[in-house]
Amino acid sequence: MESIWSYAAGSGHTEGQDLTGCTVVANDGTIGHVDRQADHFGMRHLVVDTGVWVFGRSVLVPVGMIRGIDPKARTVTVACSRAEVKAAPRFRTDSETMDREYLASVGDYYHRLPPQDTAAG
């Protein structure tokens, strides 16, 4: 499950890259935008502001779910659906990004998702 917290080799990520403000896109539509990046306990993740899509709440997405980053278009593509992101363990407060148990439950959830077809189209 360690890989869920690391950027995939082909994701287009470069060390030190700031993804704040990038639009986050699932395989079936836009999720929101990156509010911030965090790396607590070696569990790297994005906090994504969903805007009105999920009643103004934010969601936490491990960086291992990133399938592609387009720095020119300022988009981050994740390897899951909007419904899968919405069904992830609920993110309520910023302190949860410092809670090892909460992060582990999020990682476990995303790790158990079925693999997505990367050749969509």
TrEMBL record:
- A single GO cellular-component term on record: plasma membrane light-harvesting complex
The UniProt entry, under Gene3D superfamilies, shows: Photosynthetic Reaction Center, subunit H, domain 2
| UniProt record, GO biological process | photosynthesis, light reaction
* Name this protein carries in UniProt: PRC domain containing protein
